[in-house]
Structure formats: C-alpha cells, structure tokens
Amino acid sequence: MSQNELKVYLKSLGASLVGFADLQDIDTSSYNNMGYGIAFAIKISPKIIKDIHNGPTETYYEAYNQINKQLDHIAISCVKYINHKGHNAIGQTSTYVTSDDNLTTPLPHKTVATRAGLGWIGKNALLITTEYGSAIRISSVITDMPLIKGSPINESKCGKCDKCAVNCPAEAIKGMLWNVNSKRSELLDPFKCRQKARELLNEKIGIKIALCGKCIEVCPFTKQYIIASGE
Fold it and tell me: For the whole model, what pTM was predicted?
C-alpha cells in the first residue's frame, strides 16, 4: 500500500481526518527516536455538541467513550499495518499514554496533529480544525516508517475571538493565542479545568470524570461545522 492507501484504510476504520508528520525536530527519545507521526481524528456528532449547551450530557459521555475505543482500534490497526511493512510503530492508545503530575504526556496527540497540518491549538488548548472546529477526538501513532509530511501549522487562527475563554465554567482559559513555541500553561490552567469538569458531569449524570465540552460547543469553527451539517 502507498501512503495514500494507508490514509484511505484509516478512514475506512472511521477516521474523519488523517495526517502525516515529520517529528525529527522533536524529542522522541521516549519512542526510540522514531521520527514520523500519524495523526487521526474522529468527529463528534453535531447534535451531541448542540445538546451540551447547558452542560455535559449522558449521550456526550457515551460518545466520548465510544470514540476513544474506536481511536484505540484505529491506532492498533495502523501499527499492525506498519509492522507488516517491516517498520516499527507505537500506537498512542488510551492504555499506552499516561499523564504525569502536571497532566502532560511525553508527546501529545495535538503536537503530532499540528505537525501533520490537521489544525492548530485554540485558546482552549484543544486542537481546532477548519472542518470540525474542536468537535473531535484525536489520537496518534509514532513510527520509523518514512512518510511524506503535511504542512505544519505553527500559529493560531483564532484571532481576537475569546468565546471559549468567556464561556469557560472553570475560568481556566487565559485567552492567549497559541504558536508552536507556546506552553500549555500559557493557555490554560488544566487543574481548574479538570476540577470543574468533574463537578459538572457529576452534577448532570452522577459520574465523576472530567468531561465538560463548553469550549467546544461555543467555538465559531465548531458552529460552522454544525451549520454545514444541517443538523
């Protein structure tokens, strides 16, 4: 299979977006210095996003879990494909990736995605795409299989918009524009975000995990996706 056939294959498994990244200028020592990445995203239903206007719902929670499982399946399938071609790969599945005390990971999916040109990091510290806004879940695979990279995105396209910051229930979003050298702490307080998200989901459906989605729902790029869907 060619690289394009790999993209078609991953989309056949449910990926809404697929991109390829050159990571050779990034520290990948935790991944045996493999220098390429594959980023993929699955869109969230417009109706589900519209329905979280007043807070997270049980349907949103169920979709969140189902999409995470599907992303893991895509990552595992991608690794098997690459191995079959004689190369090495690591799928950044939900069981493989763990966060440290600062809620960070060695190589975030978002980094691979921006390097692959899928989108940029919004003021809400989430990946934003022109196609779906931030109404997506993302994952990635790291590999030593040479790939033709996409065009990296190095700066935010959020401009003066501050809807996510203004509407954040946790007041965790600082309103700063991202660029490739930004640190997450300059954009967001992850601890305030997590605490409030846990409170909201527990209040709404009695489950104590961090899931909110308000910054996704109010994003103008997400709104464009919803309008375009006709739902």
Answer: 0.94
